[in-house]
Every structure is written in C-alpha cells, then in structure tokens.
Amino acid sequence: MRQRLSSEPDRYRGRRRVPTPPRSRYAAVVTSAFVGAGVVALGAASQFPDAKDVNPTVLHNLEEAASNGEDAAAANDVLAGREAAKPASRSDRDKNDKISDEELAANAWLLPLDDYQFTSPYGVRFGKLHAGIDLAAPEGTPYKAVHAGVVTAAGHNGGYGYAITIKHSDGTEMIYAHSRRLLVKAGDTVKAGQVIGQVGNTGYSYGMHLHLEVHVNGAPTDPIVFLRERGVDIKLGIASPYAEANAS
C-alpha cells in the first residue's frame, strides 16, 4: 500500500465518517414502518360498521333497489329492440314462405304458351285494327293465364270464337280468343301460369292460333309493348324473372 506524502492534500480532512448500520437495523426500521401503517389502517377500519351491525331494513332497501335497477335495464333493452332474438319456429318459417309464394304469384307475368310461333302483330290489317297478336300452335295446345286475375267472361263471343276475358288487379283486361276448349268459367280466380284453355280455330280465325288482346282503361293496346314493360318479351319468348320461381 502506497503511503500518502505529506505534501498531498488530505481530501478527507475535516469530514466525519458515518458508520453504515448493519442490514439487520434496516430490516427493523422498514418492518416498524409497515407495522405502524397497519395499525393506522386497522384503526381507521374500526370506524366503519360491520355488515352484521347494519340495520336489516337498510339491507332490504338496497337489495330491492338493485333488483329494480336490473328490471329497468331489461325493460330498456326490450324498448330499444335489444331483446335476444328467438329462433323462428317451423310454422313461422312456413308461414313466411307461404306469404312470399303468394306475393310472388300475384306479381308474376308469364308467357301464355311454352312453344309458339309469332304470326301477326298488333295494328291495322285488311283496313281494320287487329287489336291483338296471334301466336300459332297446334290444335289443343294448352295455354296459360299470363297474369293473376278474375275471369269476367268465358264462352263464345262472336268473331273471337270461344274466348276468355280476365281482369287483373290493376284494372287491365286480357282476352284469350279462338279457343278450341275453355277450362275456366266466369267468376273464377286464376293464377299466373294456370292452364285456362286450349288453342283452336273458332270464330273469325285463319288457322290454329291463340289471339291475345290487352285492354287498358277499356281501350286495346299493343300486347308486345304492354308485356315487355312487365318483363315478358313475346317475340323473344322470354318471361319475367318471376316465371322460374313461380313455376318451381
């Protein structure tokens, strides 16, 4: 060990050295602090009433208030539409499906024949108005109601031969003429796609065909334009989007 020279300054001169207490003394101090805090806490806690010392009436009122709060929350959930959804029963699903089918059938517009040849348009012919269109098909071919409605006339009708008139819910009327046979009568309610008669050649007719005529507000109108606006294209043989679903 090097000895300090007399000329070197004494850096520690004048300072009092404090001895470091042993670890056991630190432990004692910390322990005493915790014990003191515990005593204070216990003293403070002793100022609060114990549950068994609370008035039973007060406890009852608190429990009743909590119960009422839960009931109010449940009521608010119901009013806000947050009630848990219950799975629909089979009868409910069937009822909904039935309603959907009825609505679908009521809105359907279909082709009157599955297979036909478009032979004559709406317009003037031989100096007279040909008030409908002609769809040629073999004799006896069944034809169907284009749209749902009520049969207002069914029978022989002069130049129309054996014909059927159906009035739709919107007030329009459709005439199916030159039939060989009629399968409905006046007063019947028919659905779109229902077979109502057979193709023939009765009345003022030239060859086997179905004469289809549409009246709007009592006046004839072009069935091609009328039906195309409702999703049925006679010339292309395309039915409305309801056709496939309604037939299934």
What's the short version?
This protein has 248 residues and is of the alpha+beta class.
CATH superfamily of the largest domain: Glucose Permease (Domain IIA)
Overall morphology: elongated
How large, in whole angstroms, is the Cα Rg?
A: 48 Å
Oligomeric state: single chain
Q: What is the chain-wise order of helices and strands?
A: HHHEEEEEEEEEEEEHH
Helix content: 25-40%
Give the topology, please:
Layout: H1 23-45, H2 56-79, H3 90-107, E1 117-120, E2 123-125, E3 128-130, E4 132-136, E5 142-144, E6 149-156, E7 162-167, E8 173-182, E9 189-190, E10 195-199, E11 209-216, E12 219-221, H4 223-228, H5 242-247
Antiparallel strand pairs: 1-4, 2-3, 4-11, 5-10, 6-7, 6-9, 7-8, 8-10, 8-11, 11-12
Describe this protein's structure.
This protein is of the alpha+beta class and 248 residues long. It has two domains: 22-85, no CATH class; 117-247, Distorted Sandwich (Glucose Permease (Domain IIA)), CATH 2.70.70. Helices cover 31% and strands 24% of the residues. The chain has five helices and twelve strands. The strands form two sheets. Strands 1, 4, 5, 6, 7, 8, 9, 10, 11 and 12 form a ten-stranded antiparallel beta sheet that branches. It is elongated, with a radius of gyration of 48 Å. It starts with 22 loop residues before the first helix and ends with a helix. 21% of the residues are buried.
